């Protein structure tokens, strides 16, 4: 998958527009990703992702980074052997596009598209 563009509230992936938060793992896309606490990520919010066993997880925290990623979530992912990067969504898109197709490990990414 390739992310063609990202603007506040909108992402285009392989030519298809999306206007809700989403997750990508390998060639799978999970649309309409909701979190229990909105702007605070918890491990349960990543259930779909964790079922796919990514080795790298890029977390896009929103346009200006408003989604909180607590240390305990990052620590638990690390314990599971998942390398985690948490950055603003624009940076997450750039990182994802840079390593997708080049990285031999399985890549997952979550994207909060607004704030």
Overview of the molecule:
This protein has 115 residues and is α/β, with parallel strands linked by helices. It has a single domain (3-111), classed as Hypothetical Protein Mth938, Chain: A (3-Layer(aba) Sandwich). It has three helices and eight strands; from the N terminus they run E-E-E-E-E-H-E-H-E-H-E. The strands form two sheets. It has a five-stranded mixed β-sheet with strand order 5-4-8-6-7, sandwiched between helices. A hairpin with a 2-residue loop joins strand 4 and strand 5 (28-30). It is globular and about 35 Å long. The chain starts with a strand and ends with a strand. The model has no long low-confidence stretch (mean pLDDT 97).
From the structure above, extract its key features.
115 residues, 3-stranded antiparallel β-sheet, 5-stranded mixed β-sheet, Hypothetical Protein Mth938, Chain: A
* Highest CATH level, the class: Alpha Beta
- Averaged pLDDT: 97
Oligomer: single chain
C-alpha geometry: globular
How many domains? The number is 1
Secondary-structure element pattern, one letter each: EEEEEHEHEHE
Question: Structural class of the helices, strands and pairings?
Answer: alpha/beta
Unreliable residue stretches: none
What is the second-level CATH architecture? 3-Layer(aba) Sandwich
Terminal CA distance reads: 24 Å
- Tally of extended strands? 8
Main β-sheet, spatial strand arrangement: 5-4-8-6-7
